[in-house]
Design goal:
Blueprint: E1 3-7, H1 14-29, E2 34-38, H2 43-52, E3 68-71, E4 74-78, H3 79-87, H4 91-94, H5 107-136
Parallel strand pairs: 1-2
Antiparallel strand pairs: 1-3, 3-4
Length: about 140
């Protein structure tokens, strides 16, 4: 499954630029694989994007503005939808992805660390005992 972000590389709108940067930056920061599709380069890509945005998401006047986000051919939403999902911490569901695996220490590594800590405490106690005995001799 490839996330596709439809963008406009040459736009006069500062808001569109910022919205595109916010989406792309978030995906990069979270190591989510995605593909940028520049609608200013090929009319075919722009027309495909327009045709595949649901009618209820089409603006009353004009064409939908980038960024528009798809998972393969499935429409996910526009910047406002993305922003809301980010605020609600539901971006992975919004993108149609399973949750990103969190970075975990394996149980085996934890067990090893735990046993090493126990061993260190035991060694420290033994050392303290030895010091005590040396001092009392």
């Amino acid at each position: 499954m490839v996330i596709k972000v439809y963008i406009a590389s040459s736009t006069g709108s500062l808001a569109v630029k910022k919205h595109q940067q916010a989406v792309v930056g978030f995906l990069e920061a979270n190591r989510i694989d995605f593909q940028e599709v520049d609608i200013t380069m090929l009319e075919e890509q722009r027309l495909w994007m327009y045709r595949n945005i649901p009618r209820d998401k089409q603006p009353e006047k004009g064409n939908p503005l980038p960024p528009q986000i798809f998972n393969e051919d499935h429409y996910c939403g526009d910047y406002e939808d993305f922003f809301l999902s980010k605020e609600n911490n539901t971006v992975f569901a919004f993108l149609g992805l399973s949750s990103q695996p969190s970075v975990k220490v394996s149980e085996r590594a934890y067990t090893n660390t735990e046993s090493q800590t126990t061993e260190m405490v035991s060694n420290h106690t033994q050392l303290q005992t030895c010091k005590f005995h040396l001092c009392t001799i």
